[in-house]
Records
---
Amino acid sequence: MRTSIENKPNPNKLLDWYDYNAREMPWRIGPKKRLSGVRPNPYHVWLSEIMLQQTTVASVKPYFTKFTTKWPTIFDLANAKDEEVMGAWAGLGYYARARNLLKCARLIAKEKSGKFPQAFDALLKLPGVGPYTASAIASIAYDIPETVVDGNVERVISRIFDVHTELPKAKKELSFLAKQLTPKIRSGDYAQAIMDLGATICKPKVPSCDICPWENHCDSRKAGTSKYLPRKVKKTKKQVRYGIAYFVERVDGAILTEIRQPNGLLGGMLSLPSSAWGDSFRDDPPIDGDWEIKDAIVKHTFTHFYLNLKVMHVTVELEQTPKRGQFLKPDEFDPNNLPTVMRKVWQSIKY
DNA sequence: GATCCGTGGCT
DNA sequence: TAGCCAAGGAT
C-alpha cells in the first residue's frame, strides 16, 4: 500500500465541474444555493443518507418525499408508531435500516434536543450510522472536511491511482488515498461532487473518460485499465430456498397477518403467515380449513438466496381462531405495508 | 474478516 | 439470463 501520492488531481477542477453538473435531488442543497448561504436541513441529510445505503437515487426519491411529508421534523418521526414507520418503509428493503432509523430519531429527539451532533465520532455512535454515513452527514450537513468513501468513491479512486488490489482488501488503501484528495474547503459540495462523478461519468461499465474533469490525472486512463477497476472477489452463487405462504380470508373480508420477529430477515415487518423457508416445502398452516393450492409459485430474490413460495388460500368463518397471527379488517390492511415478497403473494391472489 | 440483510434496473 | 450494481451497517 502506497503512503504518498504524486500527480494528484485538482479538487477545484472537480468542484468547478460540479458547479455546472450537480444533479437535482429533493434533499440536496446545490452549489449555487450553498454559495448564497442556504444551509441543508440535517434531518433531511440524515434521512436521505440512511435511505441511500445500497439503494439507488431513483428508488429513494418517492420514499424521501413520503417520509418528509408524513413527518416534517425529527420530533414527528420520533413520535410515530413502529408499525407506521415500518409500513412506510415497506418496499425499500434492508429493513434493519428502518428499525435503526426510529431508534436514532427517538434518541436525537429525547437526548439531543432534536439536534444532530456534528463531529464524526459522535455521529458514528448513532444507530444505523457507520463510517460512510457519519462522514456524509458531517461534510454535507455541516461542511466539516470528512472524507466519504462509498462504492462510487472506491471506483473513482481505484481508477485515478490504478489500484489493482481486489476489494474488499483494498478498502484501507482506497480510503487513505481518498482522504489525501479531500480539500478543506466546500466539504459538502466536494463529497457530493465525487459521488456524482462516480455515478454519472466514472461509471462501472462504460466510463465517459473523455468528459471527465480529472481525465489528465487518471493513472488507469493512462494505462488503459479503467474498465477493469475496481477489481472485486467473485461472489458465491445464491442457493434456492422453499416455503409456503398462507393467504387467509375471513368471510367479513379480514386477512390474517403476522408481525415477523424483530430481528433478521424482514425483521419487524408486517407479513402474511408463512412456513419456515428451507431446503424443501414444509406445510405449517396458521389455521384449520379447506386449503386450496394455487398454481403459480411466487419467486423472489433476496441478498443471498432465491425463494420459491408456494401459495395456499382458504376462506374461514368469523368465529374461527388462528393458531398464530392476527386478522386485519379491510380498512386496517394495506398491502403496500408488506415487504415486496409478500406483496407479490398478495398480488398473485388478487390479480 | 465473513456473513447477513431487499429490491429494482441494466447488460 | 445470470450476474452485477446501487450514497453500507451490524454482528
Note: Residues 54-56, 58-59, 91-97, 168, 205, 264-267, 300-304, 339-341 of chain A lie near DNA strand B (CB under 10 Å from a C1').
---
Amino acid sequence: MSVYTPAEVVEETGFSLDTLRYYEKIGLLEPVERNAAGQRRFSQEDVGWLGMIRCLRDTGMPIAQMLRFAELVRAGEHTIPDRIELLEEHDRRVAAQIANLTERQSYIHHKISYYRSVL
Amino acid sequence: MSVYTPAEVVEETGFSLDTLRYYEKIGLLEPVERNAAGQRRFSQEDVGWLGMIRCLRDTGMPIAQMLRFAELVRAGEHTIPDRIELLEEHDRRVAAQIANLTERQSYIHHKISYYRSVL
DNA sequence: ATGGCACCTGGAGCGCACTCCAGGTCAACC
DNA sequence: GGTTGACCTGGAGTGCGCTCCAGGTGCCAT
C-alpha cells in the first residue's frame, strides 16, 4: 500500500499543492490521511481519483458537477447507473466542444488563407 | 450600406448587449457609430468583425490577445504577416486543445465501459 | 399626453477556480 | 543547536470576463 507525499502528488498529477488542499477543503477529495506530524500522505486511490478529476476538469466540467460525481462515488455501487448517466452527458458536451472547435478552426484556416492570398 | 441596431447585433452575434458595450469600452470594437439620439448603429463591418471575435473567443483566445489582433488590423495592411503569425500560433493551440479533448474523451469512454461492465 | 420600450452612461458587483500570505510545526542534516 | 526545507492552517486576494444596476433620454403607439 504505497503512499505519496504532497510533493509527489504535485509531480504526478500536475495540480499545485494549493489546489490539492483546496480540493480537499471543498470535499472534492476525501479527507486525506496524515502522518504523525499532521502532514498529508496520499494513497494510491487518492492519486487515481485525482486522475479522474484532471480528466473531468480538463474537459471543462465545473467543480459543482465534479462534486456531484464525487458524492455518487462515495454513496456506493448502487449509484453506478447515475454515474454512467453523468459521464455520458458530459461526454456529449465534450463531443460538442470538439465539433465546435473543429468548425472554428476551419474558419481560422480560411482567414489565414485569405491573408496569404492578399500578400 | 446596411446598419444594425443593438438588438439586431445581439441576435446575429449571440453576444449580450452588455458584452458589446464592454467590447467597445475596452477597444476590442472601434467606437461604434451613433444616430441622432446617441444610440449605436453597427455597420456591416462591425458585425463581420464580431464574427471573428466570436471565433477567437470560442476557441479560447484571451481578450488581451484579441486586443493585440485588433490593433494589428487597425494598423493597416503591412501587419498582415503579423496577423498570419498570430492566427497560426492560435491555430496550433486550438489543435492542441482538440487533441487533448479527444484523448480525455477516450478516458471517459473507458470509464463508462468499465461502469457498464460491473453492472 | 401618457405609457412603454429600447437604448444610454458610469460604476459597482459577481462567479469561478484558484493563488497567495503570514505565521507556525516538525524532522533532518551540518 | 541552528538552519533549512517541506509541510501545516485560516483567511484574504486575484484575474478574467462579463453582468447588473440606478437613473436618465428619446421615440412611438394608444
Note: Chain B touches chain A through 31 residues (CB under 8 Å).
